[in-house]
Amino acid sequence: MDLPTPPLPTPVQAVATETPDGPGARLVAEEVAVALTCGGATHAVMMATPAALEDFALGFCLTEGIVARPEELLGLTILQRPRGIELRLELEEAQLAAFRARRRRMAGALGCGLCGVESLEAALRPLPRLRTALRLAPEEVPQAVAALGEAQALHRLTHGVHAAGFWVPGRGLVAAREDVGRHNALDKLAGALARAGEDRGRGAVVLTSRVSVELVQKAATLGVPVLVAVSAPTTLAIRTAEACGMTLIACVRGARWEVFTQTEGAA
């Protein structure tokens, strides 16, 4: 007889704390190991928030180049394991062969989406040249960041997660996802946009974090022409965004921000 599958952990847990006034309690974001596997092989193990895992699996496959289209991910099984969660992918034969050929093992620390990449060539992979022209009006930059803040339900509870959102001129913020890892949040957003059939070339990704190179790589792979972030970029992120034709807007603080690349994208 098959044993029942244990429930997945909730994204938020209540924990006891000690304050100067005595015992207390607060809500804390859950963090678990999430393994993406296919054909008996593990491609990556990420530390992530156990929410929107379907979006995460599809988005990770898209941003890492495992699949080019959502329909190439034939199936997904989410399994609770003793020490984490397994996302078991079912791929078409061509994608499975590529998966095996370029498999990597990562211990996905929160600060680095590239941990465990086995070569410099894999870390600094070639990116498509972005051809889509998108301009944001000056007032849209703070509006997009403010809208993302309003969409962060998990952050309001825990003050401990990042978010990624998608802003479309004339429509506003159409999707947002949260995670303890900033690159995981972007992967979840990518999956959500793909499921909804959104044209990623017609909007901007908005991030609550600093901009490191893997976030630029993921956004460029999706075809996103504009990246907006509340914190600063790294020099490699700037060079990478410039090389692929992405407008990079960062250090957004209210009505002030800085445009680092492709300044014509910010009116």
Automatic annotation (TrEMBL):
Taxonomy, superkingdom = Bacteria
Q: Which residues form the active site?
A: 112
Alphabetized, the UniProt keywords read: Cytoplasm, Molybdenum cofactor biosynthesis
Give yes or no: UniProt keyword Cell membrane.
Answer: no
Q: Which InterPro entries match?
A: Cytidine_deaminase-like, FdhD
Q: Where in the cell is it found?
A: Cytoplasm
Q: What does this protein do?
A: Required for formate dehydrogenase (FDH) activity. Acts as a sulfur carrier protein that transfers sulfur from IscS to the molybdenum cofactor prior to its insertion into FDH.
Give the protein family.
Belongs to the FdhD family.
Please give the name of this protein. Sulfur carrier protein FdhD
- Organism encoding this protein: Siccirubricoccus soli
Q: What is the lineage of its organism?
A: Bacteria, Pseudomonadati, Pseudomonadota, Alphaproteobacteria, Acetobacterales
